[in-house]
Specification:
Elements lengths: L4 E10 L22 E6 L7 E8 L12 E7 L10 E5 L5 E6 L15 E7 L5 E5 L14 E5 L5 E5 L7 E8 L3 E8 L4 H4 L8 E9 L10 E6 L5 E6 L4 E6 L12 E5 L6 E6 L5 E5 L4 E5 L5 E6 L12 E7 L3 E6 L4 E5 L1
Antiparallel strand pairs: 1-13, 2-24, 3-4, 4-5, 5-6, 7-8, 8-9, 9-10, 11-12, 12-13, 14-15, 15-16, 16-17, 18-19, 19-20, 20-21, 22-23, 23-24
Length: 348
């Protein structure tokens, strides 16, 4: 496949933004419990990669991509070292796993400072392009974390381009607005000063917007802004601010060309306990999963926490750092990856 994806714009929206008012009413379609949890499949590919992070649903069949299947990126290698995972797996709703991509850092078509360690930053477009973040390490520790890049893969799982530079610094999570012939990517960055900080709190997390256009040739290492999701009308970008234990919002994310400061706090504290993964339900409610206790929390756009459900109670403490990727599929339920068990699960 020819490389036909071209970056035409790249602007940054800094996570530390000025506040603004939210007046959205409570939405319908809450995922109220108690519900049931079932294991769909193991996420471990033949090479043994573990620690599933990113999770997206394939919107359209193209090449090796099959509509309705789930793509999952693995952050750890078989040695369980963070920032060394190199695989994206594809799992059917019935639980059949295949390897969509196994990425070799030595054969990349462009720079990716530090190599390959696939993060939660994962998107798939209707045109068949797959974009995944890399925040690599050499030994699984934050001391060796490198700035990484975004890797662009074609619909058969081959890397065709790397997106890198000063606005990409530890891409950790991502959501996208898919416009068909173009797309807006919203990427959280967590390495702005954190390695140099040596474990100290550094107020440097950002969200970067990249606008891509093109066509197809038919063929927790760190703590920072993690989960990110767009409202149904793309007027608000929600971000899970793990460090400050809140959900924040950035207005007009698609068109804005200025920083939004520290964002507007939608909800803070309460049932939130180190929110990591985030997605927005079809009705507009924000779903987050806690890094400290394994609970799913549902919050309305005006900040009311209306429900919580335990999704993971393993480990010590229970549910610690296990939940990242979330996808709501109407009529099926909430798919999520659990990196404590290396499984794709379904809550309904």
């Amino acid at each position: 496949m020819k490389r036909l994806l071209k970056t035409i714009a790249c602007s940054t929206v800094v996570f530390m933004l000025a506040a603004y008012g939210l007046s959205a009413a409570a939405q319908t379609n809450p995922l109220h419990g108690p519900g049931s949890i079932s294991v769909v499949a193991s996420t471990v590919p033949p090479n043994g990669d573990v620690n599933p992070y990113g999770l997206v649903r394939v919107p359209k069949s193209s090449g090796a991509l099959v509509k309705g299947n789930l793509l999952i990126s693995n952050f750890n290698s078989s040695a369980n070292l963070q920032g060394t995972g190199t695989t994206i797996v594809q799992i059917t709703p019935e639980g059949v796993l295949s390897v969509f991509a196994q990425i070799d850092a030595s054969t990349l078509p462009g720079p990716c400072p530090g190599g390959v360690g696939l993060t939660t930053a994962l998107s798939v477009l209707r045109s068949g392009w797959v974009i995944v973040g890399s925040l690599p390490t050499t030994d699984g520790t934050s001391a060796t974390a490198q700035v990484g890049c975004l890797l662009v893969l074609n619909n058969n799982g081959s890397v065709v381009e790397t997106l890198y530079g000063s606005l990409i610094n530890g891409p950790w999570d991502m959501t996208s607005e898919d416009l068909g012939g173009s797309a807006n990517l919203f990427v959280t960055n967590v390495l702005n000063g954190t390695v140099a900080g040596g474990g100290s709190i550094v107020h440097g997390g950002t969200v970067t917007r990249l606008t891509l256009t093109g066509r197809t040739d038919p063929a927790a290492l760190v703590i920072g802004p993690t989960g990110v999701g767009l409202s149904p009308n793309a007027e608000i970008l929600y971000v899970a601010d793990s460090l400050n234990n809140r959900i924040t919002a950035i207005p007009n994310p698609v068109l804005r060309d200025t920083s939004a400061g520290v964002g507007a706090t939608v909800s803070q504290g309460g049932s939130l306990n180190d929110p990591l993964g985030l997605t927005v339900a079809p009705g507009g409610n924000v779903l987050t999963v806690n890094g400290n206790n394994g609970f799913l929390v549902e919050t309305t756009p005006d900040g009311n926490q209306i429900h919580k459900t335990l999704l993971d109670n393993t480990g010590n403490p229970p549910g610690a750092g296990a939940l990242f990727g979330l996808v709501v599929v109407p009529g099926q339920g909430l798919y999520y990856v659990d990196d404590a068990s290396n499984t794709l699960n379904l809550f309904k």
